[in-house]
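Tokens help. Our protein:
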Amino acid sequence: MRILLVCPSWGRPCGIACYTRNLRGGLEALGVAGDVATGPGSVRRFLAEQKYDGVLLQHEYGLYYFNLLGVLGALGKSGLPLAITMHNTDLGGWMGAQHLFLFQAGAKLVVHSREARENLLQSAPPPDESSLRIIPMGCLVYRDWGVSPEEVRAELDLPQQRFTVGFFGFAAAHKGIANLVRALQSLPEVSGYIQASIHPVNPGAVDEVYRELNLPRGKPEGNTHGNVVFSHLPVPDDRLGYRQGAVDLIVLPYSRHGTSVSTSMQACDSLVARRPVMTSDAVYFSGLEREVWKIADCRPETIATGIRKLRDDADLCRDLVARAGVYAQRNAWPRVAGAYLDLLAEG
């Protein structure tokens, strides 16, 4: 069996490309081969060279402009079963306009949460409700690096004996990085590690964090300001868990921005680090419930209160880690891949 995946950002630093890579790995774990096309030309080439059993198209509005019509046209001529994963759902302007073509492609439409499903159904005109499916975001498998947290902390210039809070992911204005740093600054007995990578389509986001905090940017490989260590070099996906294991708590204090509804892959990746995870109550974490500790808002004082709560409650942290492990097993990438295969088999 062979599946064609479509991802315009394949090979670039991008969450959708990471999702595609993990999904392809899940397919391979089930004995299913997968090729990745990036645009109309490569779609036509792969279809001419190989026989496929179905197509999984990864959609995010910013990845498709005029290429959307070319990709959908080529896939329509193939007659293959098609599932389109809507990683983000938005109704406004040119983003909503893409729905006119996506909803007419004869495809199953996949979202990652009930909230995303309800948001997409508000489109005018809406999609065929029977075509909509919810497939949760996939989770990685815990990896034992054979290295102690103390060794990794030494590598990252983090104090050995302090409770350490980590942030991991691409920098963006809505992710609350500056407020997290302010919370950490109010807790001098706690250390922070901010691994905020630069996204190629949003390169100024890191500079904005420093401007908001009135701090000098310094070196991309690492800067220390008080009790917080910053790093902005990209971390290979297979090394992310290595660094996550060096902190005691992972915090993702996102705020709602715009009208889009999506799911945080970073949160799901963090669940397998065997560290408690604290998030905001934003829609991006709506698929997670008792697996993470949620705070009501992203003000520095609220974040600081949450950090103190988890620092001082070892039993709660153990419960969060245990529930996160169950969630990660239930939504491991081979299971997610299997759900896509079942969907394609519906025709």
